[in-house]
């Protein structure tokens, strides 16, 4: 579907008077949303490409710009989008020097996947599958078996992990193929359900400090002739949510993580490729009614809605049975100039969640899916007080949220 302004003029001639308040322009066409590069340049394509280069059965190279290496390390920095990195060269001189290495020397980013949020992206990284297959389609999503909203980052309420995400991880496939496989992260993540279904396989090594993680990741790379090592740092995202992506605390975290990347790069063993990437970018949203639409205070948006899922810039809306079409109509009328608003089948057909949707995942996706284009949020001040108070936000398909680096250092 394409947007052709001439085809919608309300029956007026070229000399018609200016539009009045009740004469709304067309909502954003669903097909105009910039769909992630599933299959050729998304986070879900990274580990399968590296594993295929290591000869791991059941994997295939999907990012054509990357060349194989005997030892591979992925360092994922939570919340460090491509546009934020490019905007802060003074705080991140080492990573800035690597920008031209991104995506196999093309100097281009890759895409996170929709929604651009941590639980979804980490599942995409670890399984090598897009959200429509691995089944974590948002920050919160409806569990069709219970009718409850499930927080997929905190895994609350608890759900059997392997029933929710049954596919093996790329780490498990690599470990079974004899590749030395390790994850080096915070000890607090070792036993979480998200780690088990997305990042397990080989050895998990918990270290509290960033410096210890970098040193241990380098040791693990050298421990095998063929190695696949993953390491992670969270606090760039944490400071962005709390203070914003251009605050002093955020800048301080960027400076710190830049030194971590350099520390790891300087210790890489021979025949290694280090890839520095992220799970999403971030955007600061002003605290006013124009930019923060409160679902809990808006009777139009609440009408016919049984559950509100997702997050402020990437909403899953679950309608009362029978009200699906009405909810879609209202959300499109109220928000359609600022959000891409799609029915479930429209979003699936447009490829927002990947080329294929598993049957078990279908009803986890909202009856209505709303993805922000403009600098705006749908908050829920009563249902989600903590999330509604965040300065930095993410989730949608805009470049600032969707584009992430794939910086490369080779030895």
Q: How does this model look, in words?
A:
The chain is of the alpha/beta class and 411 residues long. It has helices at residues 46-53, 82-86, 93-97, 102-105, 118-127, 131-134, 161-164, 170-176, 193-198, 210-222, 235-243, 248-265, 299-302, 324-335, 344-349, 359-362, 385-388, 399-402; strands at 71-77, 110-111, 140-142, 149-151, 180-185, 203-206, 227-233, 272-277, 283-284, 292-294, 305-311, 314-319, 339-343, 368-372, 377-379, 392-393, 403-404, 407-410. It contains 18 helices and 18 strands. It has a six-stranded mixed beta sheet, with helices on both faces. It starts with 45 loop residues before the first helix and ends with a strand. Residues 1-22 have low confidence and may be disordered.
